[in-house]
Every structure is written in structure tokens, then in C-alpha cells.
Amino acid sequence: MTPKTYFIGVLAVMATILAAANLIPEKQAEAAFSIKDNRYQLISAKSARGGEILYVIDNLTGQAAVMGWDNNTIVPLTVQPITELFR
After folding, report:
1. Nearest-5° angle of CA 66, CA 68, CA 72?
2. Pair 45, 31: CB distance under 8 Å
């Protein structure tokens, strides 16, 4: 086997591996998740009006702050007791 044939074989194997890796679907990023600590809990979700919503809940006081995220801007929407928030 000549070096030229060996090099072509290596390139063919690498091309096959890259083509196969390109067919594997990527895992899509999802923003709906929850992080819970002793005092605070963070929950993100999609807004019905578009964009993303971040709920920041204080477990000790029962207050919840709602932040909207749209077009690279965070906008505070409301702060109220969690019992009033989901009525």
C-alpha cells in the first residue's frame, strides 16, 4: 500500500464518521425547568404571549415575582403572594 492510498483511506473513514455524526439529531434546548433551594425556587416557562417567563418564589414568605424575557430584555411583571398568582 502506497502512502497516497493510505491517506485516501484515512480521509474516506473520517468523512464517513463526520457524515454519520451529522445525522445524529441534536438535543434541543428547553427553558422549562425548575431550581429549588431551601428559600428560593426558580421556574421558567414559555409565555402564552410569546417570550419566556421566570417565576422567582420565596418559600419563606410565600411571595412570587414574575419576570418576562423578550427581545433580550428582562421586564418585571408582578410581585404578589403565590396563592393569588395562580388563581
Report:
1. 145
2. yes
